[in-house]
Amino acid sequence: MQKNYAAGRLRFTTDNTRAYKDADAIFIGVGTPEQPDGSANLSYIATVARQIAETIEKDCLVVVKSTVPVGTNDKVEQFIHDFLVHDVKVEVASNPEFLAQGTAVRDTLEAARIIIGTDSQWAEEMLMKIYEPFNLPIVSVSRRSAEMIKYAANDFLALKISYMNDIANLCELVGADIQDVARGMSFDERIGSKFLNASIGYGGSCFPKDTKALDYLARQNGYELRTVKAAIAVNNDQKTILYKKASNRLITFDGLKVAVLGLTFKPGTDDLREAPSLENVPLLLERGAHVYAYDPVGCDNFKQRYPEGEYNIKYVDKPEEALSGANVCFIFTEWSEIKAVQPKEYKKLMRTPLVYDGRNIYGIEEMQDAGVEYYSIGRQAVVENKDLKSNNSYNPGHRQYIA
Ligand code: UDX
Fold this sequence. Notes:
Blueprint: H1 2-6, H2 16-20, E1 25-28, H3 43-55, E2 60-64, H4 72-83, E3 90-94, H5 104-109, E4 114-117, H6 121-131, E5 138-141, H7 143-174, H8 178-186, H9 207-220, H10 226-238, H11 241-249, E6 257-261, H12 276-286, E7 290-294, H13 299-305, E8 313-316, H14 319-323, E9 328-331, H15 336-339, H16 343-349, E10 354-357, H17 364-370, E11 373-375, H18 386-392, H19 396-402
Parallel strand pairs: 1-2, 2-3, 4-5, 6-7, 6-9, 7-8, 9-10, 10-11
Bound molecules: uridine-5'-diphosphate-xylopyranose.
Residues 98-101, 154, 161, 195-197, 199, 202-204, 206-207, 265-266 line the site of uridine-5'-diphosphate-xylopyranose (UDX).
């Protein structure tokens, strides 16, 4: 950005008239957040569409990068035509993005594919020209198909994770190990090796929102999208699966020091949207726990919802501070700073080395060797006490939830 800014090819402005007035193409990339009923909020798109209609003075292609329900681009085009001030040609094309948080630049410059959605040759040619220098595979489809590709791709990935989490829960019950199972699956090119990590559930700004939005779109069209519904349901339960296991293991959380390692929905971002921590920390606080939370970047955002003075929560600068004297530890995010904590540190620092790992950071054997009681996702529990093992390894709490 600095290079292009210095070369005069990049300008920033808050004046939309200046930006839109004589543009050949305008890309819309505003948010489409989830509404309480699961539908996408299109008010930001509408605001921009109206500004464009009122300011453009020459023929222009409007490109929607925002994730919008199928059919929205038709409406955006109509909306712009309705409010158009000057007599110019405007078309709207769909060009969904597939950026993940923390890797947006790489995901742009080295995208797996560019999706172009338009039914007009003029728009298609212009987008081909724009993307030519990227030298990436281009898939040109109808506008509605492009809109659908974005949801179908995101929801497929969400489904893949929920599927692995479902299998992981079954692995625990039947004595298999989800990491070995995933490895065995990954060599099949039809399955692929990515997004097979069982976890405490997917979060973030896309998967939770886009699964609900597609489910909503299906219902609106009189169709039940059963696979996506199942992915949502599995994910909802998965987020508190370790809390349920711990509740089953401990008589009470009241007065216990609980170390929470990781607050954000994944590493490399300070985003808390739909993060498992936001489901679990309130439950722990309600049950009287003293929560000591560590996250390399997420604490400031978490503090805004759970300030230290108001809640029984303390934010610490190092994982070790959270672990020191703790009765139980939950791991919600696989930050490298958390992965760097050695198994023996849990044994050494915690009052009782009892760890619930939602990201399968540690090997079963290393935790066993370190003398840590260790519960993770889709793997056998490491429990010294035989009575606890029969109670928790094939987790009855989880069985209840299945029933
Ligand atoms: C995602 C998509 O990857 C991206 O293409 C789309 O444009 C936006 O949504 P993002 O939400 O930033 O990007 O994160 P991603 O890395 O995909 O992870 C999403 C969630 O899934 C995280 O909570 C992550 O922890 C979880 N996840 C991911 C798993 O639980 N297991 C996996 O194997 C992979």
